[in-house]
Specification:
Elements: H1 5-8, H2 19-26, E1 34-38, H3 42-48, H4 53-74, E2 78-85, H5 93-116, E3 120-124, H6 132-145, E4 152-159, H7 161-177, H8 188-193, E5 205-208, E6 227-230, H9 240-252
Parallel strand pairs: 1-2, 1-5, 2-4, 3-4, 5-6
């Protein structure tokens, strides 16, 4: 099902009038355990304003911060941001360098708040291909929050789902050849245990901003039965209200997982 948040943000006077009332209303219904977001539209947001693309990424980082807080306050268990794909290396060099420095900046400004919120930060993707300063920041995030027991916050950086699946298959073949597993044991559960999201629930809700209607090599195995929501709102304009309304839209859907 494809929905537009533009339609959801209407003039319905029956909607809660305050942020606190909206949160309380959403908490009355079952929440998605895992929300994944494809944060698209930073470059277009900047272009519309005559700004460099990096300005869009800077504003997008502010939205990341806001949505983390919103998800935490709702009680979402897992939040995943698709931050940098394996294909994004094709972008202009100065833009890539800026994006690779964002984890270090985020570390300086937000680590303490994440610790106080009991958020556990994890990275999905091949860190080894990123610059050393990026790897250092990512590892510090993971190390400093590894014992936290609240919201699990995933950043997919240098991530591509096809690459993830290929690596998983290669490792399973090696484990079969070495006698670690029996090939007859290979099933969906075992396959999931070889993926970067091992131990996490599959996304219940996937949000993509900016009007693009595709998943762009993101969690292809994991989103087999995810609810998808596409919105024309550019990521730097995606507010906490948009996030709350997206969760409300999810709550109105009937999830049948292939059943009648």
């Amino acid at each position: 099902m494809i929905e537009s948040i533009k339609r959801l943000v209407g003039t319905d006077k029956s909607q809660p009038r305050t942020r606190e009332e909206l949160i309380a209303k959403i908490r009355q219904s079952p929440l998605p355990e895992h929300v994944a977001i494809i944060t698209d539209g930073n470059g277009r947001w900047a272009k519309k304003r005559g700004l460099p693309r990096t300005a869009g990424h800077a504003q997008g980082m502010k939205r990341v911060r806001e949505i983390i807080r919103a998800a935490d306050e709702l009680g979402i268990k897992v939040l995943t941001f698709y931050s940098f794909s394996t294909e994004n290396w094709k972008r202009p060099k100065d833009e890539v360098e800026y994006l690779m420095k964002l984890p270090s900046e985020f570390l300086k400004t937000d680590l303490q708040e994440l610790i106080e919120r009991n958020v556990k930060v994890q990275m999905l993707g091949e860190k080894s291909a990123t610059p050393s300063y990026t790897q250092s920041a990512l590892m510090e995030f993971e190390e400093r929050t590894k014992h936290n027991t609240g919201l699990i916050l995933n950043f997919a950086i240098n991530y591509g789902s096809r690459d993830e699946i290929l690596r998983a298959v290669r490792q399973m073949i090696e484990d079969v050849q070495n006698g670690h597993i029996d090939k007859d044991r290979i099933d969906e559960e075992l396959m999931s245990s070889y993926l970067l999201t091992r131990g996490l629930p599959d996304p219940d809700l996937v949000i993509r901003t900016s009007g693009e209607i595709r998943v762009s090599n993101f969690l292809l195995w994991q989103l087999a039965y995810s609810e998808l929501l596409f919105t024309d709102v550019l990521w730097p304009d995606f507010t906490q209200e948009h996030f709350f309304l997206a969760v409300e839209d999810y709550q109105r859907r009937s999830r049948r997982f292939g059943a009648v």
